[in-house]
Structures are given as structure tokens and as C-alpha cells.
Amino acid sequence: MSKDTEAKSEEIMESKVLWYPDSKRNTQMDRFRTQVNRDFGVNLANYNDLYQWSVDSYPEFWAQVWRFCGITCSKMYEEVVDVSKRISDVPEWFKGSRLNYAENLLKHKDQDKVALYAATEAKEEIVKVTFGELRRDVALFAAAMRKMGIKIGDRGVGYLPNGIHAVEAMLAAASIGAIWSSTSPDFGVNGVLDRFSQIQPKLIFSVAAVVYNGKQHDHMEKLQNVVKGLPDLKKVVVIPYVRSRQDTDLSKIPNSVFLDDFLATGKEGDQDPQLEFEQLPFSHPLFIMYSSGTTGAPKCMVHSAGVSVCAHTLKTLYRISLYVQTGWMMWNWLVSSLAIGASVVLYDGSPLVPSANVLWDLVDRLGITIFGTGAKWLAVLEERNLKPGELMSDIEFLHKPVRCSCLEDFDQLYINIFNIPSGGTDIISCFMGQNMAVPVYRGEIQARNLGMAVESWNCEGKPVWGESGELVCLKPIPCQPTHFWNDENGSKYHKAYFSTFPGLWAHGDYCKINPKTGGVVMLGRSLCVPQYNSDGEERVILFLKMGPNKSFSQELVGKIRSAIRVALSARHVPALILETKDIPYTISGKKVEVAVKQVIAGKDVTQRGAFSNPDSLDLYKNLPELQNF
């Protein structure tokens, strides 16, 4: 980068410092850096040095992660990775090793320590499960699964809320070597079948009903229709959950059984079964995750036990909670925290009932030190003038999926450190995120994560700094999918990530990397879409949803145009800026630009099961302002 370019970029991306790291604090990152310096004879003075080493020497870095995290295995690897292969070759990681994901999550020595706290909107009581109890319960789940014939490679799925049973069923499947996949109860029948019908599970766990927003919602009719669409199912396990067994009728669902009766088949007399862990290759399939499915059938991304290695190394005293549902990759990320002895807090229900403080009350009640949520809920708090900084005392990290428009609440939300990660289901991890070793700058994700050779590239295939570009990953990572399900020749996989820049991972998001701070600003999640005419010409349309008591006006449009022109260029100014009453979101809370692009082009969006507000798509049909282009 030239000095002129750097100076220009730094001027554009001047950022306010919100927090500086404590130079006296000995963090896990510091300990890891010290270990690297000792073992490799290098002198890495700070995080930037460590990051550069981690991407330049990525096989050595990931080997060090294995050692530092204390991965449990029955057979050590022969090779970390073949360095002659590119990320597009999807190289095998830790070849020759044998391990089990569930074993690594359940290895904590203090069996009396609480592994899971489960809270729900439906009950005030918080259920606690120790590591010892969790091992016992997982053993019983696994024994019952084996008894019904579940084996290595079979698919087990959950149509479940964020609770203890979802964790236990997933870990049991992993202990056997079965492949786990899940969706949450707020998915409709079509949304579930769009996903599960592609992988044809043998076993499904579900609940009879859920409570949300103060109301009990029956789940049995949806489950009945889901089961009809999954002909390979051998067993349907129903958990009464918020409804009694006596009030639940299973007669209309073939091969169905209550959870207690299912688990009873795993017992041999009065003895609890022993927990056995199948020893499997590092690349053995563990999870099947899904793309949003808003413009077609969801892509089925297969992730291996590599996500265990990618689990964050945190202090074992942490209690961690993310407000998530089981169909979001952050749920898998959350549960993986068990690997380092963290206590995981699960919450099921509305974050606004009985009050908007319910999650903050849970933070104080349990002494949660790491808390995560989505931007949408924080926006509601902002609208209600609730300031989290006045409500929280013990939090050390606040995880929040990135949203560019959150600058106004950024200052008041960080506690000791405000943490915005960014990654995705595609890698079941984060390309960039939290870092106790570098400052927090307003509006920026702190740093690119170790081992993630991430850059921002322009359309000419060149890296840019301080300018908008596509997020690109240059080197292999163990958390990329091993393959897509039902994609035998890999063509869908290749098209999804490697067709934009041959041989390199193009993530589909846009970002700016600040050359001065090293921080990252994500740009790809706003509702700004292209429109094309019959000649192939393109124009950009920006839709605005106004906040409470805010009015849309041409004066506002003028201010936005001016701000974009000054901050970026005249070429970046949208052709039209229009008001909309609602913006479509997926069930996991992501804005959906591609579907809006289809609607304004006159195409139907038939895959509506993945939307939390599918009717919002109709707002973009036949808009007069978009005609005659």
C-alpha cells in the first residue's frame, strides 16, 4: 500500500477509542503468544505480530492450538495439513488422528461443576446440570440411540428449543459418530422440510409445545406434518416440555414415543449405561448446517470435528450465555464452550417477557461473564431507552453479531470490552472478533482472528485498505465445510465460495479493514439492492425503515445522499432512496437482500419458510417508483 493511499484511508477511517487493554493483565492470548515464542524461537511482541505469524505459518499455528487447548485424542495426527493445497482444495486437517467431539466437551475433571443452566420464559426455576450429570444423561441418550440402530454416519435431528435436551441429544449423537442437525420450533413445516428432507434422518427429537411471548404454542400439528415428509424416520421422540404427558396425544404420529420411554430402552436393569466414545477421523462429519434458503433450497454444509479445535480458549471460571435458537450456528458455538470447562447458560423464550430486562436479570442472577445476543434485540432496548451499561455488572465480554447501524448504541454498550464477531454458518466460526490484546474502536470489529488470512478485495481481485471490498479468505482453515450434502462432484460448494476469485474463499460479505487500527467494519448487511432493466443496466435502490416517531422526508434523503457522497464517492450514491414499512429477516435475524432483489425483478420467492416475517416481501412488489426503468 502506498503512503498516499494509506494516508487517505486513515483519514477516512479515523476512529474513536472506547477502551484500552490493561497492560498488566495476563490473558489467554498473552499466554499463547509466550508459548509460541518459546516453542518456535520467535519474538512476537504483540497481537499484530502473532496474527501475522499465524497466517504465514498456519500449519504450525494450528498445531500449537491443538497443544494449547489440550485436545483429547486416542491417536495423534501424522500431518497437520498439506501446505501444497489451497483453500479451494478443501485439504484434510490433522490427518491420521482419532478423536471424538463429545469426549472433548465432556472431559472436565470437576464432575460437580455446573455444566448447564437452563432458564425459560415458562418457569422461574433455573435447572442446573453438572458435568457428571450431563455425562450420565448423554450416556443414556446414546445407549437408547444405539438400541434403535443408530450408527456412525446416520443422521439424527432436533426440532427443539434452546434447552438441556437439545444439548444432550446432540452430544449423544456425536459420541456415536452420528451426524447432528437441528432447527428451532419457530420454523414452519416447509422451512423444516426444506432442510431435513435433504438429509433424511432416522431419528427426530421434538417438543409437544413451547411458550413464547406469554402464550403456549402447540407444536404437535407441525411435527405431524414434518414427520409425513421424512419417510426414512425410524423413531420420533416427543418431549412434553411445557405441556404434561397426559395432555399430549401421540396417536397421529407413527413411530412416536415419549422421551422417558425412549431413554428407558437404553438401560440394562437398574444400571446406568457406560458412556462410550467412537474414535473417528478429524474430518468425520459432525454437524449439517444450512444456508438461509431464502432464494431456493438451503445448501447443506457438512462440518467436521474441526469445530472442536476452533472452540475459543477461555478461562474456566466463565459462565457464557448467547441468546440463540438451535437453528443458528451460534448455538453450536455456544455448546462448544463446554470443552474448556465453561458453564453454558441456555434460555428459551421471549427476551421481552415479562420485561425487556429479563436477560439482563439472568446475567445478574447467575453472574454471567460472557453474554451474546443479536442486534435486533439491542435495537428494541434502544427504542425503549434502556441502557445496558446501567444494568450489568459482571460481564467481561458482550458478543453481538455485527450491524453497521449500531454506532449510536456502541458507546454505552461496551462494559470491559464490547465484542462484535463476524463469520457465519459457512465456517461455524468467526473470521474476526474479540481480542483482549487490542483497543476497542467505535464502530469496528477489533481484529482479524488468528489463523484467518482475511483481506478485503475489490472487483479487480486486488486487496484494498480503508475501502469497501469483498471479504476474502486466502488460506485453508479447519472450520470450512468438508463438503455439501448431496453435492457429489463439489460443484455447488465451488460455486458458493470459489467462483468469484478462483482458488480463494469469497464470503459474500463486504467490509473495510482499517489500515491504522487493524479493525474491520462490515458493510454487507444493509437493505440496499440492485435493479436491472432489459438492457442489463443496473441501478442501486436503498430502502429505509424509519424508527419510532421518525418521519421519511426528502430532506432526509438529501442528507443521506450527501453523507454517502462525502464518505465514499458519487458512484456509491443510490439511484433511489425509498421508504419501506418492514424489512424481511430470516428466523435467525439476518436481513435478506437477495429475496428483495428477486421480488423487485418480478420473480416469486417460494421458499418462505426461512423468514420470520414473510409477508414483508409483498411490500416490494410492483412499486411504482421502480417501473419503466
Automatic annotation (TrEMBL):
<dbReference type="InterPro" id="IPR032387">
    <property type="entry name" value="ACAS_N"/>
</dbReference>
<dbReference type="InterPro" id="IPR000873">
    <property type="entry name" value="AMP-dep_synth/lig_dom"/>
</dbReference>
<dbReference type="GO" id="GO:0005829">
    <property type="term" value="C:cytosol"/>
</dbReference>
<dbReference type="GO" id="GO:0030729">
    <property type="term" value="F:acetoacetate-CoA ligase activity"/>
</dbReference>
<dbReference type="Pfam" id="PF16177">
    <property type="entry name" value="ACAS_N"/>
</dbReference>
<comment type="function">
    <text>Converts acetoacetate to acetoacetyl-CoA in the cytosol.</text>
</comment>
<keyword id="KW-0963">Cytoplasm</keyword>
<keyword id="KW-0436">Ligase</keyword>
<keyword id="KW-0547">Nucleotide-binding</keyword>
<keyword id="KW-0276">Fatty acid metabolism</keyword>
<comment type="similarity">
    <text>Belongs to the ATP-dependent AMP-binding enzyme family.</text>
</comment>
<dbReference type="GO" id="GO:0005524">
    <property type="term" value="F:ATP binding"/>
</dbReference>
<dbReference type="GO" id="GO:0006631">
    <property type="term" value="P:fatty acid metabolic process"/>
</dbReference>
<feature type="domain" description="Acetyl-coenzyme A synthetase N-terminal">
    <location>
        <begin position="47"/>
        <end position="104"/>
    </location>
</feature>
<dbReference type="InterPro" id="IPR005914">
    <property type="entry name" value="Acac_CoA_synth"/>
</dbReference>
<protein>
    <recommendedName>
        <fullName>Acetoacetyl-CoA synthetase</fullName>
        <ecNumber>6.2.1.16</ecNumber>
    </recommendedName>
</protein>
<dbReference type="Pfam" id="PF00501">
    <property type="entry name" value="AMP-binding"/>
</dbReference>
<keyword id="KW-0067">ATP-binding</keyword>
<dbReference type="InterPro" id="IPR020845">
    <property type="entry name" value="AMP-binding_CS"/>
</dbReference>
<keyword id="KW-0443">Lipid metabolism</keyword>
<feature type="domain" description="AMP-dependent synthetase/ligase">
    <location>
        <begin position="109"/>
        <end position="382"/>
    </location>
</feature>
<dbReference type="InterPro" id="IPR045851">
    <property type="entry name" value="AMP-bd_C_sf"/>
</dbReference>
<dbReference type="GO" id="GO:0032024">
    <property type="term" value="P:positive regulation of insulin secretion"/>
</dbReference>
<dbReference type="InterPro" id="IPR042099">
    <property type="entry name" value="ANL_N_sf"/>
</dbReference>
